[in-house]
Amino acid sequence: MPQNRKRPVYINIAGHHLLGTSILNKGSAFSVEERRTFNLEGLIPTAVETIDEQVTRAYQQYSKFDDAMNKHIYLRHIQDTNETLYLRLVSEYIEEMLPVIYTPTVGEACQLFSQIYRNKRGVFLTYEDRDYVEDVLRNATKPNVKVVVITDSERILGLGDQGIGGMGIPIGKLALYSACGGISPAYTMPITLDTGTDNEDLLNDPMYMGKRHRRVRGKEYDDFVDHCLQQIARRWPDAIIQFEDFAQVNATPLLARYRHQLRCFNDDIQGTACVTVGTLLAACRAMGQGLKGQRVVFAGAGSAGCGIAEQIVMHMVDEGMDQSAAYDAIYLTNSTGLVHTESDRLKDFQASFAKSPDAIAHWQNAADYSLENVVKEVKPTIIIGVSGQPNIFTQEMVEYMLTYTDTPIVLPLSNPTSKCEALPEDVITWSKGKAIVATGSPFDDVAYDGNTYAIAQCNNAYIFPGLGLGVIAVKASQINDAMFMAASEALASCSPRIQNSNAKLLPSISTIHEVSKTIAIAVAKQAIADGLAAPVSEGRIAELVERNFWLPEYRDYKRTTI
Question: What is the pTM of this model?
Answer without folding.
Answer: 0.94
